[in-house]
Design a protein that fits this description.
The protein is of the alpha+beta class. 30% of the residues lie in helices and 20% in strands. The chain is built from seven helices and nine strands, in the order ββαβαββββααααββα. InterPro entries: FAR1_DNA_bnd_dom.
Length: 274
């Protein structure tokens, strides 16, 4: 128990957050309002900027990243009692590849350039996020015209997902569905995804599109096959709704071949995509 007005302190990751029962304390907290984030002008991240929550911080930095023209990743984060309290957002070209087996005569290709551009942010005991460190200097060229192609900026809208599903059921080739979406938005530069994203989504939907009882029939068939041949192996992966997500099987001949030629393994990732 504490007296009225007494401050409570909590040490977290070498930072001290202060909680006070003074109701007027929040009046001193500067929050970046939504109206300030919008608009055409690019707001540059600065130390001391504060946000209502982590998602608001991510959306703000994502908008800045898109305008400047580089890709971003969440490098690391810290938790306290299961709650994220610290994050570092870096340029995707941050770091250097280290491979002891790599020969100097045949260097492995890598996109990492050791870029130091990043921001760090932490939250206080009320959940208010504050930018702690900012480094905006890149050691490589940025390209705003390519921003839509970076993975962190690509997404499939609910409308596009539904259209892809319907067209796939109707037997319309995926490239035609994608070209149709491009025409609807007025060109490739207005697309929020690339054809590969659409193809990956259709593959995922196809794996889940099983008729009633199909998954059980597959399991029954494989179980009978395994009973006849002890070398047969299969594994089924189900989602939270007990729907089939992934299926793997290998017969005795394949397993024996793997023992002899295990240094080469191939996966046909184009099955049912063309």
């Amino acid at each position: 128990m504490t007296d009225e007005g007494q401050e409570l302190t909590e040490v977290l990751d070498d930072e001290v957050f202060v909680e006070s029962k003074d109701e007027n304390l929040m009046d001193n907290v500067i929050i970046l309002e939504e109206d300030n984030v919008g608009g055409n002008a690019t707001i540059v991240p600065e130390v001391g900027m504060k946000f209502n929550d982590k998602q608001e911080l991510f959306e703000f930095y994502k908008k800045y990243v898109y305008e400047v023209g580089f890709s971003v990743r969440r490098r690391n984060f810290k938790k306290y009692n299961g709650v994220v309290t610290y994050v570092m957002l870096t340029c995707s070209l941050e770091g250097q590849r280290r491979d002891k087996k790599c020969s100097s005569l045949k260097p492995q290709p890598t996109i990492q350039t050791g870029c130091k551009a990043r921001i760090t942010a932490s939250s206080d005991i009320r959940g208010i996020w504050r930018i702690c460190m900012v480094d905006l200097e890149h050691n490589h060229k940025t390209s705003p015209s390519k921003s839509r192609l970076y993975r962190c900026n690509r997404e499939l809208s609910a409308y596009v997902k539904r259209k892809l599903e319907v067209n796939d059921i109707a037997g319309i080739p995926l490239h035609k569905s994608y070209n149709s979406a491009v025409v609807e938005v007025g060109g490739y530069e207005n697309m929020t995804c690339i054809e590969k994203d659409c193809r990956n989504y259709v593959e995922k939907v196809r794996r889940l599109r099983l008729g009633e009882g199909d998954a059980a029939a597959i399991q029954s068939y494989f179980a009978k096959t395994q009973a006849r041949s002890s070398g047969f192996y299969f594994s089924m992966d189900l989602d939270d709704e007990s729907r089939l997500k992934n299926l793997f099987w290998a017969d005795n001949r394949s397993r024996q071949a793997y023992k002899e030629f295990g240094d080469v393994v191939t996966f046909d990732t184009t099955y049912l995509t063309n």
